[in-house]
Amino acid sequence: MFDYGQTMADQVAQVRRFNRLVTQRVGALDDHFLGRDRPLGASRLLYEIGLQGAELRDLRRRLGLDAGYVSRLAKALAREGLVRLVQGGGDQRVRKARLTAVGRREIQEMNARSDEAAAALLDALAPKQRERLVAAMAEVHRLLRIAGVQIERVDPTSPAARWCVAQYFAELERRFEAGFDPAASLPAEDRDLVPPRGAFLLASVDGESVACGIVKAIGPGVGSLKRMWVADPVRGLGIGRRMLDALEVQARELGLTTLRLETNKALGEAIALYQSAGFREVAAFNDDPYAHHWFEKRLRRKS
To answer: Where are the beta strands (DSSP E) in 1-82?
Structure first.
């Protein structure tokens, strides 16, 4: 049973023991792991390139690797005849890696080898133990993804920002009793979502967008929070609260002292989040047709 009284030093020691055991059990210490005499980093990059190919800059973000290191690994794979490096997206500065026929066969072999290793690990356990291990791995996977969350201010016209807003609108369409029409709601123009008027924040995990939120000035010292969205697979893991905290930081940097927001009665979890973060319900301050609740919070200055 886990000891919740552990100190940070105890927890760090446990993480290190876990890391050492996992690298040993999965075979990562073997020079032949996932590839013939190929470093693990190169084999992982080959796998991430995948059958559709991938831009090197996307691979860097996804794997959290240095640009120079990714470039060297890609060139090594190209020398092996496993990938071709081509221009991507019509921009000569962007390079894309595509698998060759040899590379596709290598991926198939890597997948078969990985399946064999996983099966061997599970075969050593009784059925009930396998279930416990797989369930624990799923939870560790979720939590490790959350540990890698990055929240940053982005251009509201970027593809990632547009995609997040589209997911947000689609969810409101599903959840609101009468559906949702973005044109009928209060606007949030792109020009108002960049400093000094506002900010668009995006949360990502390994290059995958998982949440967004915006803050924009609507009056002297007053800002509005909008477009708060978290992807279903990562809900319940605290990303919404982290996004809300990050938006408050942005609001302070924009010189705002009061934050307001409106929300629909169908979004019960969002209402609970705002209340837990110190927002108090107030009288209606706008005529948003989809709003049932209006909230406000005075921001404290950071000492």
So the answer is: 54-55
